[in-house]
Amino acid sequence: MMTDETDDERMIRLSRDRYERPLPKRFYKTVGIGEGNAILLDGRAVKTPMKAPLQLPNRAIAEAVAAEWEAQVGVINPGAMPITKYANTAIDRAIPERDMVLNDFASYAGSDLVCYRADRPPELVKLQSLHWNPVLEDAQRVLSAHFRMTIGIVHIPQDNTAIAAARAAAEAYDPFRLTLLYNLTTLTGSALLSLMLLSGRAGEEQGWAAANVDEDYQISQWGEDEEAMRRRASRRQDYVALLQLVNLLG
């Protein structure tokens, strides 16, 4: 069926429909933590989307996940349960698909956000240098990896040894931490920044500012768009949840 709906209008409608979709009712009365830090609803073990037991790596994370389930009132809103979402992902993907996750991470390192710079306006050039140069310097210092910069968005091949160094750093992590690293990477667009965040070499605000240099500059010039700000708030919620999990892992 033909419509006059533009692509942008369709994306806005689909996003709105996702938010307005009826949520399932809360069906349980009690939330608990069982053996092996498993999450229990009315004494029964919760399963991940792939039907694996939702067992967490330590008590602190189990308590954070349990708190999300307990906080659901009337309905279950997955959008308000980011820690549970990433715990599910760690169990369902990072363990059985470890090599695929590592390869995807290496691909991000090969086209990392911080390597692609603007040549104007001067204010944006300065902001990119301020927030992104420390990321490249960290890679050089910690990974002994030199990543090339370029002007514009045309892909620039990176040295294989640099990509291999980033992949090796990711490979050293256990499945749960690897999941956090990968999701930070897809959220920020930067594998190198995410390595800094996971290791504690970059703080929450530093990482968020670096990941949003271009967007923040556009907002400063043109103002805020309601739909874009809603998506940004959702990304920020996920970002904070990921770093909370990093801290809870210790």
Strand content: under 5%
Q: Give the low-pLDDT segments.
A: none
Number of strands: 5
> What name goes with the CATH superfamily of the largest domain?
ATP12 ATPase
Q: What is the fold-level CATH name, i.e. the topology of the largest domain?
A: ATP12-like fold
What series of H and E elements makes up the topology?
A: HEEEHHHEHEHHHHHH
- Mean pLDDT metric: 92
Helical stretch count?
11
As for the number of domains, it is 2
Class computed from helices, strands and strand pairing: mainly alpha
Query: Which strand order do you get reading across the main beta sheet?
Result: 1-2-3
CATH-derived architecture of the largest domain: Orthogonal Bundle
Main sheet properties: 3 strands, antiparallel
Euclidean distance between termini CA atoms = 54 Å
Radius of gyration (CA) equals 20 Å
Shape: globular
CATH class of the largest domain: Mainly Alpha
Percentage of residues in helical conformation: 55-70%
Give the secondary structure arrangement, pairings included.
Layout: H1 7-20, E1 31-33, E2 39-41, E3 44-45, H2 59-70, H3 82-94, H4 98-110, E4 116-117, H5 122-143, E5 150-151, H6 160-171, H7 175-188, H8 191-199, H9 204-211, H10 213-222, H11 226-249
What would a concise description of this structure say?
With 250 residues, this protein is mainly alpha-helical. Helices cover 60% and strands 5% of the residues. Helix 4 packs parallel to helix 7.
Protein architecture, described:
The chain is mostly helical and 250 residues long. The chain folds into two domains: 7-78, ATP12-like; 98-249, ATP12 ATPase (ATP12-like fold). The chain has helices at residues 7-20, 59-70, 82-94, 98-110, 122-143, 160-171, 175-188, 191-199, 204-211, 213-222, 226-249; strands spanning 31-33, 39-41, 44-45, 116-117, 150-151. The strands form two sheets. Strands 1-2-3 form a three-stranded antiparallel sheet. It has a two-stranded parallel sheet with strand order 4-5. β2 and β3 (44-45) form a beta hairpin. α4 (98-110) crosses α6, α4 (98-110) packs parallel to α7 and α8 runs antiparallel to α9 (204-211). The longest helix has 24 residues, at 226-249. The protein is globular and about 60 Å long. It starts with 6 loop residues before the first helix and ends with a helix. The model has no long low-confidence stretch (mean pLDDT 92).
